[in-house]
Amino acid sequence: MKLNNIENVFFDLDHTLWDFDKNSELAFREIFEKQRLELDINDFLEVYKPINFKYWELYRNNSVSKESLRYGRLKDSFDSLKFETQDSTIQTIADDYIEYLPKNNHLLEGTMELLDKLREKYRLHIITNGFEEVQHKKMQGSGIHDFFETITTSEEAGVKKPHPQIFEVAIQKSGANISRSVMIGDNLEADIIGAHKFGLQVIYLNPEATEFRGQYPQVQKLNELLNYL
Question: What range does the record give for the signal peptide (predicted)?
Fold first, then answer.
C-alpha cells in the first residue's frame, strides 16, 4: 500500500490542510456584524458555498477574472436571497473578506501531526490556486508556513491547476524528481487528474467518499495518508 521511492510531497492548501469553510464562515460573521447587514448569516452561507464553488471553476478555466470572482460570488448570493444592497457595499465586503479571511487560522483535523511526521522523511511543498497575497498569510497565521520548502501559486505560475505548467513551475522550484513526487489534494480535477496527467503520483483527499472514475489512491482523513507515505 505504501508508495515507493517518494522524496517530495506536494500539497494543495485550501480544503486540504487549511480549513477554508470554517475560516470563511468566521470571516463573514465578522463582516456581517461590521456592516450590520439585516440578513441571516446561515442563509447566506448556504447559498454562498455552491456559488463560490461555481466561480472558482470559472476562475480555474479563465472564464472570470479575480476581481469578477470576488464581486460576483457575493452579488449572486445576495441576489439569490433577494437581498438588495448597494454595489459599493458589495465591493467593500469583497475587500474586507480578503483582509479578514487569513486572520482565522483553523486547520483541518490532524494537519500539524501529519506535517510533523512527514517532514522527518520527505521534502514538503505547496501548490495552490489561491491568491498570492492571501495564501502566504494563511500559512503563516496557522503556523504551517515553515513546514514547506517551496510554495507555488497560480498567480506566480501564470496558470491554474490542472494546467501542467503550474506543476512544471513547482517541480523546477523544488528541484524534485517527478517520478519520486506525489500530489495530495481535495479537488479531483485540479489536484488529482491534473497532477496525474503531468506524471506525478497522487493521493485523493476525499472526505465525503464521493464516487469518482479512476483508480487513484484515496483517503477520507489526513492521518490515513500515513498508510501510503
Answer: none
